[in-house]
User: Which sequence fits this backbone?
């Protein structure tokens, strides 16, 4: 077991979220969250992160990705344990497909014997860590940045469908995870950030204006501000 604590933080600001990932349809059916939804915020304290992964290398990459977020979450500490019992349960089970995560405290709705975050196995360490970084953003309450209501993307919808739709990733999921802008009453929003790790990378031909998503493998300034704002201790004044 190890305890990950945040670095001394600066004061915040916030923003939103990359492709939600191959979230299975039954998981995606939960209420839609956008950018950062404060109703999905974990309460201040310690979150147990259980790792059920194939080898030490995978565990080290996942912990490294988690630490990058932990540096900017003053309200949270993370207790990392081996096994399947925790608040956030990370798995690379080959019988489960896709890179996906429950959004924030939506994980509490899931059966305790099921993972709340899944990563596909790959020998590409850079890709595996980037996927872990992205999915931990979801696990902490962030959604896809390319679905920011103020994004500058002019989608070619037919090209998007042709590119993404498959048996594992049906049209309704593509619509929900890529095209639909996020909305809702509890959003924490800052300016659109194409450099966010929560932004999908995609080819320019998917947009009418040639805008594309870059491959973001570390937290942007916007990511840091967003998560810090979500998890900075709230000071309440005395009456």
Assistant:
């Amino acid at each position: 077991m190890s305890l990950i604590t945040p670095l001394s933080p600066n004061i915040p600001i916030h923003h939103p979220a990359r492709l939600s990932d191959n979230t299975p349809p039954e998981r995606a059916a939960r209420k839609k969250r956008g950018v950062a939804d404060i109703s999905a915020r974990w309460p201040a304290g310690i979150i147990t992160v259980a790792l059920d992964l194939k080898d030490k290398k995978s565990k080290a990459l996942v912990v490294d990705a988690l630490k990058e977020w932990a540096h900017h979450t003053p309200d949270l500490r993370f207790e990392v344990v081996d096994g399947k019992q925790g608040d956030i349960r990370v798995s690379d089970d080959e019988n489960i497909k896709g890179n996906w995560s429950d959004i924030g405290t939506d994980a509490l709705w899931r059966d305790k014997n099921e993972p709340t975050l899944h990563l596909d196995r790959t020998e590409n360490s850079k890709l595996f860590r980037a996927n872990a970084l992205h999915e931990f953003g979801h696990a902490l309450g962030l959604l896809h940045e390319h679905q920011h209501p103020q994004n500058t993307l002019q989608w070619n919808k037919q090209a998007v469908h042709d590119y993404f739709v498959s048996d594992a990733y049906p049209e309704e999921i593509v619509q929900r995870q890529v095209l639909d802008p996020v909305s809702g009453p509890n959003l924490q929003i800052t300016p659109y950030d194409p450099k966010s790790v929560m932004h999908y990378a995609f080819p320019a031909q998917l947009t009418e204006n040639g805008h594309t998503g870059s491959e973001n493998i570390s937290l942007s300034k916007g990511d840091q501000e967003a998560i810090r704002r979500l998890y900075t201790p709230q000071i309440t004044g005395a009456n």
Q: What stands out?
A: Residues 154 and 209 are 6 Å apart (CA to CA). The chain has one domain: 2-230. The radius of gyration is 17 Å.
